[in-house]
Amino acid sequence: MSDRTGRLVRRAVAGAAALLLLPVAACGGSGDQPGRDGPEVLRVLAGSEVKDLEPLLARAAGAAHVTVKLTYAGTLDGADEVASGAADGRYDATWFSSNRYLSLIDGASAKLSTQTKVMISPVVLGLRRAKAHELGWDTHPVTWADIATAAGQHRFTFGMTNPASSNSGFSALVGVTAALSDAGEALDRAQIDAVTPRLTRFFSAQTLTAGSSGWLADAFARRGADGSTGGSTAAGQVDGLINYESVLLGLAGTLKEPLTLVYPRDGVVTADYPLTLLASSPRKEAYDRLASWLRTPDVQREIMTTTNRRPIVPEVRPDARFGAAPLLELPFPNRRDAADALISAYLNQVRRPSRTLFVLDTSGSMRGERIDALKQALAALTGADASVSGQFSRFRDRETVTLLPFSSAPGDPRTFTVPERDSAAVLGQIRAYGEGLGANGGTAIYDSLRRAYDTLAGERPTGDFTSIVLMTDGENTDGSTYDDFAAYYRTASRTAPAFVVLFGDSDTGEMRRVAELTGGAVFDARTGSLASAFKEIRGYQ
Amino acid sequence: MRRRIGAGLALLLGAAVAAALVLGNRGDDGGDAPAALVTVHGVIGSEKKPFFDDPGVRAAFARHGLRVEVDTAGSREIATSVDLSRYDFAFPSSVPAAEKIKQKRGATRVYSPFYSPMAIATFAPIADVLARAGVVRDSGAGYQVLDLKRFLGLVAKGTRWDALPGNTAYPARKRVLPTTTDIRTSNSAAMYLAATSYVANGDDVVGSAGQADRVAGTVAPLFLDQGYSESSSEGPFEDYLAIGAGKTPLVVIYEAQYASRLFAADGAIRPDMRLLYPAPTMLSKHTLVPFTDTAAEVGRLLQEDPQFAGLEARFGFRTSDPKVFAGLVSAAKAPIPPGLVDVVEPPTYDHLEQLISAIERRYPAAGKPSS
């Protein structure tokens, strides 16, 4: 690995880690009451997409007399939290890239008060310049159908976020489906069924997935022309990304080879970032001040300049960076069952299957609550978690799952393949296997991780999204060391990232190095639950 | 959803309030404060919030010893689910909703200080395409109308934009459907429903449950086939101003939304933008129902005081004296007609409610994720 790549990896992993750890840091503490003279605090449950506004928001204290306290959550998780009432009293407002999915949930609208759109960004395709040129998409108008045809012919590959975790993926999925179905009106279940074969061809070209837009962009940057590791991917170079225009424009400046943005002429789905007051919040005035300030022309111009998003107020016109292509908006489903059927079809039928290995610490220190938490977290992934986001993070149809428990030495890996239909029996077997885990002995982290990579190396390459989850609650006590593992890791070209879960008394420094080395990411379950860390990782698999 | 000037001033105002609070906290006796204002609480349709937030309006109320605090809600919610006992008045956007509230609360008076016709905002090339298709025509009185009967015929056939004859200006694959707000919550969509149901009912106001049921089947696709729609009437109009024809080639609005932008001359209405009036159209008569005498004074001022009439017109509302609105139209050289000919009345509250419920039933109940 060259120095340059090494730097990129570090930066990307650090970015991902910060993104994931920040919620914990941001929501700790209880000093939410405004000081007598200080700015009022507005607690905002937000999508990680708005993280790039933090520097701007830091100035809201002076300019609008509001201190904005952001806590990040995934789109569906956030929707769950608002709809179930769990957000009441804990937050004053939400700020996701769109309220559309949330509004489809029964009873959710009653939880929301005023909504103020702050900025705009459409979901489009960004391609490496040479590839765009090769396909003729830099000069000719393109439709999603054209893109689907090229995808089916394996003429390019792309990355996209998981629609169940991230709004950009969900919007892209809706857009592609609406365009390919050629329906002209909002999608229903019959149309989704009919278009599934075409979607499958389209998404055969998706070779990179992620749980968040920012991480996807970093993984893409890492997978430059040298095709090095990073992200849950099938092998090889990734030619482009489907993501927010703002992310793609921001990324374009950091890549060696510029991106060409392709605006499909048959339509896009656009995020409008509504800052939304929760009906339960008493801080309406603070909300009003912040919303007004965000829409002043100067702030709108600054948002455009620093985050590449289009302004929402007509007084500020979008500048030249956005080009002149007309943005046709595709209809968005207005039925919850249609939206859910679409996500479900994508995960279980349309996209490439997942190949996942779970390397699980069952050493003596896991005894008691910790092993129970692990059993619970595994059970949740077999369908026991009845929440919306829980249902979408279960082991998917066509997924091959290996559970590799370890203590003083790696245990026997046990592999399950979830069938295309009637998944219940296999899911039950996985759950039963998890229930049978005991806790005894030492902690041979690196021998076990090596066993996982050996298992993968022995398999025929399938093009599945392949990744490893490493969960351990303590330091390495048996077998090879981190340095041994790193030396082993570099002996071959490997593409499976390791997603590392910090739990109990994990060796944080070493765990970060594992994530860095393999192009994975670190997830913290020390303050939250193991189940929610697992759930979040599912977005990346 | 907020105007530029309003936003700036609101900030100043916010700061002033904060300062006042700080200062107020310091003094114990509160000595020579200006005469205390009587606060009146109201629940209003969201389209009137910029009006009540306006510093000029607040100052005008203050001169009469009043401070008006408002919460917003959809007119349908105000008439049904909002706890009205927490308020001194309700100010929905339609007569049917106001009548319902008046009945429910046993109120004796109502005030209808201003109104605004339902209109459709679009763009010149799109108006031209629709004119070629025979659904938009000149009224002969200086404005263009959208012939609702012909338009519904076009929609019923599932016509797509790119199937309209000679349409090179907007060759989109999507269906010809005006953007509305969510019919289940918002009054502007309900006004559009009232007008289209009139046409679908053979040019007659829907007057029975049977008619409502029958007509709902015809007009439901106007709402359901759009897909997701927003709950507040400011949302789609914002998209129209900021994103343009790509998202909202046709958007159902109140004339006041468009007119206030023209009067403010803030550049939001660009030269290629057009305002069409459906024929027939419907007037949104903003009607205040007071529950207390002080609230009645608010209604009286809004309806009778010429100073308030001037402020109302600035926000694009038409008041009882047409000269006020006309003056602003001519000063702004705005392409807005002095009056409209083809105006019909909405159904009664109960029948409108039956229509909305019949459409609501066509949204399937929320299902569990099917994974």
Automatic annotation (TrEMBL), chain A:
Where would one find the signal peptide in this protein? 1-26
Q: Does the keyword Ribonucleoprotein apply?
A: no
Which Pfam family, any one of them, does this sequence belong to? SBP_bac_11
UniProt superkingdom: Bacteria
* Transferase keyword on record: no
Query: Which CDD domains does the entry mention?
Result: vWFA (cd00198)
Q: Which InterPro entries match?
A: VWF_A, vWFA_dom_sf
Which residue ranges does the record assign to the VWFA domain? 355-537
Q: Which Gene3D superfamilies match?
A: Periplasmic binding protein-like II, von Willebrand factor, type A domain
User: Which keywords appear in this protein's UniProt record, sorted alphabetically?
Assistant: Signal
Residues spanning the membrane = none
Listed name of the protein: VWA domain-containing protein
State the organism of origin.
Answer: Microbispora oryzae
Query: Lineage from the top down?
Result: Bacteria, Bacillati, Actinomycetota, Actinomycetes, Streptosporangiales
UniProtKB/TrEMBL annotation, chain B:
Q: Which UniProt keywords apply?
A: Signal
Q: Which domain of life is it from?
A: Bacteria
Segment forming the signal sequence? 1-20
What name appears for this protein in its UniProt entry? Extracellular solute-binding protein
What is the organism field in this record? Microbispora oryzae
Organism classification? Bacteria, Bacillati, Actinomycetota, Actinomycetes, Streptosporangiales
